[in-house]
Automatic annotation (TrEMBL):
Keywords: Membrane, Transmembrane, Transmembrane helix. This is Citrate transporter-like domain-containing protein. The chain crosses the membrane at residues 21-39, 45-62, 69-91, 136-158, 179-203, 209-230, 257-274, 280-301, 322-341, 361-389, 401-424, 444-466. The keyword Aminoacyl-tRNA synthetase does not apply. It comes from Bacillus canaveralius. It comes from the Bacteria.
Length: 468
């Protein structure tokens, strides 16, 4: 027994050591790239070499599904590269451009730290308790809270929301699971702290303003579509158990709500301001704001000591585990660049141009449906979206760049909601103790209605934009 225990301990130590190396490599690569981007100082070959070493080491520690997708994308990408005679400079450029995602995935999880330290979940519970006698308002608060938290906490918001609304989930699992997940996906449409928006704006070379203005229109539209579907169910819902959480005193609740509002506005306002002042990649700006804001916010609420403990947890448990999605997205973007060497982008464009001459609504619905259908087949949204963003000239479709970006972000959001390999559904099935089939059954109706109505709205708004 002692020998078995010693072997287990030895294996655990080795895994911990490997995890520490993985975290160190990712952190070093992200830091080097930030310095390279901000100061314009650095050797391209050195950075690319560091990226290749980090990729090769982290690849073997990826989960099975992301590893398979990553492997296929790398192989096919290099087939395109060699077959169509790509230059070495093009290969290096494809890697350098996509390394911006490393600091993004490393920095955004830091934003969940002040959220936990500030105890803002109690404020949300207090608001729910206040409206507990009006069942229809409870899904509204759950949906809105999920969207708000996800907008800067990303996938970390799923665990917070699950813990926060545990009594509701126990009383009506299907209804409130939908509220949490649909709120999560609505934030994907507008928040640059989530990979989808940052990647799409990066590829299309768009600024956050006026994109954010139009994106919020569709978030509000999605909010009302979701509430309309909830309205059918709420009459039979049990009320929230007011004794499940302690209600904070009113002044403290107002203070916490004010802090949360200021923090939310500050996160998005700083992006808008810095994006206009500095000529940096939007992804780099988001990464820098996430780092500075998390430290500043924690200091302002006087949680410096607790912050040290949270950073230790970040170093041990979060930093080494961002490799799955970050490497998969980097390789998917790399693949899309290699894909541009082939004649296929022209074929894709010609198909959409052909249908544009008949119905623009149908073309937009085709784009959304393509992203969602490939997501259902297990292809990550980044693959389909990056190919479309790089292959389709929106002017050829009589579509403004902003509305094209909106189309892609909505497709990304609906693909995330329905995909069997999205982090939302993989983590959601474990946290909520439900099957993927249940999640699909609960959310497909919202996704279809959302795609149809937004296709019509995008066409109408696009007509107005082009007419001005």
């Amino acid at each position: 027994m002692e020998k078995i225990e010693m072997k287990r301990q030895l294996l655990s130590d080795r895994l911990q050591y490997a995890s520490s190396i993985r975290g160190a490599l990712l952190f070093l690569l992200g830091a080097i790239y930030l310095v390279y981007s901000v100061l314009g100082a650095g050797n391209d070959t050195l950075i690319v070499s560091a990226a290749v070493i980090t990729f090769l080491y982290c690849f073997f520690f990826m989960n099975k599904a992301p590893r398979r997708i990553t492997f296929v994308l790398v192989i096919i990408g290099h087939v395109f590269y060699f077959y169509y005679g790509g230059a070495v400079s093009y290969w290096k450029e494809a890697i350098l451009l996509n390394l911006a995602f490393v600091p993004l995935f490393l920095s955004v999880p830091l934003l969940s730290i002040p959220m936990r330290l500030g105890g803002y979940d109690g404020t949300i519970v207090t608001i729910i308790n206040k409206w507990s006698d009006k069942p229809f308002f409870v899904p509204i608060i759950v949906l809105g809270s999920s969207a708000l938290l996800t907008s800067f906490m990303n996938i970390g918001a799923l665990r917070v929301s699950t813990d926060l609304f545990r009594p509701l989930l126990e009383s009506s699992r299907g209804t409130y699971t939908k509220a949490i997940m649909q709120g999560f996906c609505l934030s994907i449409i507008f928040s640059p702290y989530i990979a989808g928006v940052a990647i799409i704006l990066f590829i299309l070379d768009l600024t956050l303003i006026p994109f954010l203005f139009y994106a919020l229109i569709f978030v509000i539209l999605g909010f009302f579509i979701s509430l309309f579907l909830f309205r059918i169910e709420v009459r039979s819902l049990p009320t929230w158990n007011a004794d499940a959480k302690t209600i904070s005193d009113e002044p403290e609740t107002r203070k916490k709500l004010l802090e949360l509002t200021i923090g939310f506005l500050g996160l998005f306002g700083s992006i808008i301001i810095l994006d206009r002042i500095f000529d940096f990649n939007l992804i780099i700006i988001v990464s820098l704001i996430a780092i500075v804001s998390s430290l500043l916010w924690s200091s302002l609420i006087r949680k410096k000591d607790e912050m040290k403990s949270e950073l230790k947890n970040y170093r041990k448990n979060i930093l080494p585990n961002v490799h799955n999605e970050s490497l998969m997205i980097i390789t998917a973007s790399f693949f899309s660049h290699m894909f541009q060497l082939s004649p296929f982008p022209q074929y894709i464009l010609s198909i959409f141009v052909f249908f544009t001459n008949h119905s623009q609504v149908f073309v937009i619905l085709m784009i959304l449906s393509s992203i969602v259908l490939f997501s259902l087949l297990g292809v990550h949204q980044i693959v389909t979206v990056s190919i479309m963003a790089n292959s389709i000239d929106p002017n050829s479709l009589d579509l403004s760049s902003i509305m094209f970006a909106i189309t892609l972000t909505i497709g990304w959001a609906m693909g995330t909601l329905l995909s069997p390999v999205s982090a939302l559904n993989i983590i959601g099935t474990n946290l909520l103790n439900v099957r993927y089939q249940d999640l699909l059954k609960w959310n497909w109706q919202f996704a279809i209605i959302m795609m149809i109505i937004t296709s019509i709205m995008i066409t109408l708004i696009n007509y107005i934009i082009l007419a001005l």
